[in-house]
């Protein structure tokens, strides 16, 4: 091994017997000199080392430890009391704030009336209004009024629900014009005015004939929807007059025969009767012909002649009134004196003053008399 490797990396790192003996000698010498530091002479084979001996620290007694522990315990107790006091102050402040919020809420609640908001399920039960020709706008408004009365809605809620149930053409009308009406009364009147269309008799009759009971449609649904079309009649139609049109659109011939045999007097009676027939469980096939071998008479069509005659008479009376108002007075004078487009008076002969021929062909003219001989 090299000489350098034998030297310790740090002074006083290795303690040998010689070092221990030397330290013992130094300690005895230093005790007489009052704890002075002795420096050994360097050796030619190893570096010099400094040996020092410090005076020992004073011993800690049990009384000192007891006093220290007592002081620490007292400080911890004081700190705990201070934290508890802060916690109590914060809790009291929170309670005071909560009481103030409750009092403010009570004042706000007492200053205004509690209003029920429209339920989403109730709003969805109201049919939507598109603005089609076959829709009853007055029935739409009446439906909202009935629901609002039962749900204790305000006029503001009625207006809100009415706008929410508009779609397509009706919604476009509200965006462009209807939003100018701020209250329910004016808005509903404007809606009825803009979408109340008087159908002609031909258009209304086509709607009635096309509306028949669907395969999966109940009798009550069919009756209510078709009676809605009956209310669109150009001439006011009573419930009793609408019964034949409802019977004519039933899908099953058994129901038609039963309704024709005992025609209901009004719409509620018709609905009760059709529900009773459906609960009896008659044949579900609508194309089954009656059994001729059992001598079951075929169902007779509903008496539509009387209803049609009533409508025809009213329609003829209305047309006669319109024709009288549109009749153009015929001109009595000849030439350009009459109004444009007016009918010319009959031709008059200036010889015999009779109508129907000209003077050239008058039988009283001498030339015509000689030619006839």
UniProtKB/TrEMBL annotation:
MF (Gene Ontology): nucleic acid binding; zinc ion binding
Coiled coil (residue ranges): none
Segments of this protein annotated with the region Disordered: 1-56
InterPro entries recorded: Znf_CCHC, Znf_CCHC_sf
CCHC-type domain mapped to chain residues: 349-363
Keywords: Metal-binding, Zinc, Zinc-finger
Domain of life: Eukaryota
Transmembrane segments: none
Biased composition (Low complexity): 15-40
Record protein name field: CCHC-type domain-containing protein
Protein's organism: Daphnia pulex (Water flea)
């Amino acid at each position: 091994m090299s000489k350098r490797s034998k030297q310790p990396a740090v002074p006083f790192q290795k303690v040998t017997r010689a070092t221990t003996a030397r330290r013992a000698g130094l300690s005895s010498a230093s005790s007489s000199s009052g704890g002075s530091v002795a420096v050994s002479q360097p050796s030619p084979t190893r570096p010099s080392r400094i040996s020092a001996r410090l005076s020992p620290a004073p011993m800690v007694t049990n009384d000192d430890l007891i006093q220290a522990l007592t002081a620490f315990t007292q400080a911890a107790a004081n700190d705990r009391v201070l934290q508890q006091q802060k916690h109590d102050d914060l809790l009291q402040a929170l309670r005071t704030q909560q009481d103030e919020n409750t009092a403010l809420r009570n004042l706000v609640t007492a200053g205004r009336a509690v209003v029920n908001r429209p339920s989403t399920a109730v709003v969805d039960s109201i049919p939507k209004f598109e603005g089609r020709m076959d829709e009853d706008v007055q029935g739409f408004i009446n439906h909202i009024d009935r629901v609002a009365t039962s749900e204790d809605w305000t006029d503001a809620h009625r207006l809100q629900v009415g706008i929410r149930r508009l779609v397509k053409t009706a919604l476009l009308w509200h965006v462009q014009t209807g939003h100018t009406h701020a209250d329910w009364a004016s808005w509903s009147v404007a809606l009825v005015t803009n979408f109340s269309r008087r159908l002609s008799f031909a258009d209304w009759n086509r709607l009635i004939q096309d509306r028949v009971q669907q395969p999966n449609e109940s009798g009550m649904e069919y009756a209510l929807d078709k009676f809605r079309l009956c209310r669109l009649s150009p001439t006011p139609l009573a419930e009793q007059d609408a019964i034949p049109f409802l019977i004519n659109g039933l899908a099953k011939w058994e129901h038609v025969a039963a309704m024709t045999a005992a025609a209901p007097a009004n719409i509620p009676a018709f609905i009760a009767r059709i529900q009773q027939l459906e609960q009896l469980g008659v044949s579900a096939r609508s194309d089954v012909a009656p059994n001729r071998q059992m001598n079951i008479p075929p169902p007779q069509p509903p008496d539509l002649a009387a209803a049609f005659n009533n409508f025809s008479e009213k329609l003829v009376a209305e047309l006669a009134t319109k024709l009288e108002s549109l009749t153009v007075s015929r001109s009595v004078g000849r030439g350009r004196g009459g109004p444009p487009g007016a009918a010319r008076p009959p031709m008059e002969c200036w010889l015999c003053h009779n109508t129907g021929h000209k003077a050239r062909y008058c039988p009283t003219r001498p030339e015509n008399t000689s030619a006839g001989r």
